[in-house]
Amino acid sequence: MRDDVESAWQKRLPRNAFIGDVLIIVLTLTAAQVVRFSDEDAQLAADDLRIDYWLVGVLIGVLWVLALNIWRAWDIRVIGSGTLEYQRIFAATLAVFGGVAIVSYALRIELARGYVALAAPLGLLALLLWRWISRKLIIRRRSRGELSRRLLIIGGPAEVLQLHRSFERTPGSGYLPIGAVLPGYSLHSPDGQELPLPVVSVERTADAIMDSILENRAEVVAITGHGLKPRTMRALSWELASREISLVLAPALTDIAGPRIHSHPVADLPLIHVSTPKIEGFQAALKRTFDLFCAAVGLVVISPLLLATAIAIKLDDGGPVFYAQQRIGRGNAPFTMYKFRSMAVDADAKVAELSALHGQDAGNGVLFKMKDDPRITRVGAFIRRYSIDELPQLFNVLLGTMSMVGPRPPLEREVLQYDPYAMRRLKVTPGITGLWQVGGRSDLDWEESIRLDLYYVENWSFVQDIIILIRTVKVVLAKEGAY
């Protein structure tokens, strides 16, 4: 064990997670026992054998803990990671109670259904809630540079810069970049590009690179676009493994979600295959059905709010209630998008004037957007703050021109400025909300807005749509980036 490098928190974090999980399991099974059997002398009957339910609870608890260990729920790389952490807890819990149900059925053991029906969901929710709270605390500390593993990046300047920016965007990932190794480059001016990280070495040999890793007390080494010989890579990986330093291979292909990546051995090589998600067939039908259901139910539920908003807009300045605007949808096809009017009637006529007056302060380069837009009405300021002005877009969802979740629907003048890279946003139906909406909204710069929309296009999944909708509620209530 490398006591000189490994921080105390790397031992404390898994230990705290373990203690918390075990405590929750004990309390859950105790609660299920007390609620289900009350003062009864409950026993499990298996042929001629009778077992007290307290002992059954102990057995299930042990199996539950073992399952969490098998699924590596206390791995330092998993704790605080979010989705992966929750998936492992869910899988371990499902395996335990699924296995208990199968065994009891196969052996004809009369296991009380109420006991299992209470313990399983209660325990799962409690574990997920505990890990969620713990993750929030961990991310808060990691954003201050704490609870993070020291990361050294090996690769070319462009790859190092790209990887560093990715970690910069997500300080809660648990990695703290401390330096870069640029094999074969100039130490003083790597490829004419200034890096935000100190270049600690430009050597290509495994021994020299290893010396730099040890001198900088790196706990994780990320290799991307390295240009190293296979023999050097192999020697370096062996040396890192012997010293218990984690090795991460970061592909140059970025913004690819985990479910799209599959390892497949071919000719003794661990080839990585990247699948491309397509919204067609069953997936397209599922997304459309979900859209229709959400839009129909949503319009019924919020109909009083829609009516109150319409009356308020009409009373404010006497102008039209709705605002119809041409937007560009899937396949570069134009459509009419509906919103509650939040600006003065002549707002569109003033765009050129305001853009010329305020220059780069009015938007993010392509998208025109102002924080203190003089065209916004009194009622408009309120409904924009809570995104009420966007609710009529549910009618667009019913018509099929928009989806509940997708890229932001652009204006034609914006599309005219798109490069081929940005045009990929138009491969899917635009949405009322999306990663752009939950990732910062109007506070984002143009490059980041495009990146988030393209990430959605390249990594679409139905589960991701659900998560984005849930996150949207939080963002709207917090009024983040709304103007």
From TrEMBL:
<feature type="transmembrane region" description="Helical">
    <location>
        <begin position="86"/>
        <end position="107"/>
    </location>
</feature>
<feature type="transmembrane region" description="Helical">
    <location>
        <begin position="54"/>
        <end position="74"/>
    </location>
</feature>
<dbReference type="Pfam" id="PF13727">
    <property type="entry name" value="CoA_binding_3"/>
</dbReference>
<feature type="transmembrane region" description="Helical">
    <location>
        <begin position="16"/>
        <end position="34"/>
    </location>
</feature>
<feature type="transmembrane region" description="Helical">
    <location>
        <begin position="292"/>
        <end position="313"/>
    </location>
</feature>
<dbReference type="InterPro" id="IPR003362">
    <property type="entry name" value="Bact_transf"/>
</dbReference>
<dbReference type="InterPro" id="IPR017475">
    <property type="entry name" value="EPS_sugar_tfrase"/>
</dbReference>
<dbReference type="GO" id="GO:0016740">
    <property type="term" value="F:transferase activity"/>
</dbReference>
<feature type="transmembrane region" description="Helical">
    <location>
        <begin position="113"/>
        <end position="133"/>
    </location>
</feature>
<protein>
    <submittedName>
        <fullName>Sugar transferase</fullName>
    </submittedName>
</protein>
<keyword id="KW-1133">Transmembrane helix</keyword>
<feature type="domain" description="Bacterial sugar transferase">
    <location>
        <begin position="287"/>
        <end position="477"/>
    </location>
</feature>
<dbReference type="Pfam" id="PF02397">
    <property type="entry name" value="Bac_transf"/>
</dbReference>
<keyword id="KW-0808">Transferase</keyword>
<keyword id="KW-0812">Transmembrane</keyword>
<keyword id="KW-0472">Membrane</keyword>
<comment type="similarity">
    <text>Belongs to the bacterial sugar transferase family.</text>
</comment>
